[in-house]
Request: fold
Amino acid sequence: MHKSVSQVQNVKMALDSARQTIMLVDDDPIFRSMIASYLKKLNFEVTEAEDGLDALKLLRHQVPDLMICDLNMPIMSGIELVEEVSWQFPMLPMIVVSATEDMGDVARVLRFGIKDFLTKPITHLDHFTSAIKSTLEESQANPSVVRDFSSQWFQLDHSGQVDEEKELYWHLNHLKDNVVTSRDLLHALQPERDTQQGGWKCSYHVLQPSEMMPLVFDYAWLMDGRFAFYLVDSSDGGENGVGTALLIRALFNDFLRTRKRCHSDLKDLADAVEKGISCTKCSNPINALFGIADMVEGTISILPAGMKSNWLFDGSTQAIEKGIKLGEGCTKNFVTSHLPMKKGGELVLSELGVRSFKLTIKNVTY
Reply:
């Protein structure tokens, strides 16, 4: 935990001049004391809680600027605490510190809006400090915006670009060195299988061997009722497959967030993702696919980026060739636009060997 006086002073200068409060929740009194001492040297006001229940009691009297909590605690676990805080105090940013190797647990809390997670023991205090600083800056700049955790990792700027100097490489290096952990995290972060808005229901199904790096699917309903989605083959990115999948997740979410009031074009989306891939060391070109279903028009548009697929509707099939992969100029690919979807249809992927993927879109009013 040693850090020179000059280093601490430099960190202090980098932090906001106003004294901010951090709640530290951990059942290990030694770890809690060491971290609290370090945070106080950085001019933070620190409140300590020995478990999740104690933390909730303290929150009734004062809400801090940031909460840092362990996952494995008695009485009320960190997972239970994160879930409870996300409901009662949705704008309170949280960082998880965990020694667990169970990425299912980590993924579960990440989906509750955790801004970052760090692994125990904390051996790099500069990483720890950077995570705190970036989380507080993000919270102050966007107090009402719930950001996806991977956006926090990659620190996207206002133009959707990746700030390479702020990129949290230690997470990605940890995942790169632990294949099983990486695979489990990507599996656990998959969204709900079924989603519905108005008279439209969308469901997806993936069939793949459990030992393979997975196909990663994500989606979002846009402000105008359209359904945007992407699919990425994380096994295609080599040792950077996980980093690339997480980067795409961050870029996808930020692109839609910053353009929620205007028409989002598939090629604009693909271009933003390709620019992100080109300016980070933790990603490679990868096979992918993007799509937007327009529920008002009753049509769907697909931009291939290395994946061949078929759109099935009313007994007909429209083949969509794979084209150039994502990261190698996929915006040159032809967008198959305005495919019929009045009653719905199915997007099915081919050329996947033992794996298969199907997205079913159905108009439940028919």
